[in-house]
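F.,

This is the one I mentioned.
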């Protein structure tokens, strides 16, 4: 009789263990899906930031053309390039100056045009 009780107790314990194991697997799958979703959102946010930056540059160029202001700024008035920030590993190869929300996109574009004109002339 004690052998029968021991076998029954072992079966009950095994069933409980299987339920806990299956529940843990389900929770791991849910957490992995949440992590993957978060990673995709991070990528999407970075793309949107890049797109916004590009649109701001385009807008600044359009405003600049409307005002009749052409030509690059002198190199001495151009904004200095900053060194890396703590978020520079998220930039996917972009320079920190391009990602700086306080930088002037008009000045950046004018500086780029000035560099291109300088390199073409030389």
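My design for it:
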């Amino acid at each position: 009789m004690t052998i029968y009780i021991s076998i029954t107790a072992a079966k009950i314990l095994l069933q409980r263990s299987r339920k806990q194991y299956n529940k843990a697997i389900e929770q791991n799958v849910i957490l992995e899906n949440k992590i993957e979703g978060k990673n995709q959102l991070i990528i999407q946010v970075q793309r949107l930031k890049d797109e916004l930056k590009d649109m701001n540059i385009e807008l600044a160029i359009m405003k600049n053309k409307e005002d009749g202001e052409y030509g690059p700024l002198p190199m001495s008035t151009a904004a200095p390039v900053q060194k890396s920030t703590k978020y520079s590993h998220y930039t996917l190869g972009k320079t920190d100056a391009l990602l700086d929300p306080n930088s002037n996109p008009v000045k950046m574009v004018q500086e780029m045009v000035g560099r291109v004109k300088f390199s073409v002339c030389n």
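The chain has one domain: 2-121.

Talk soon.
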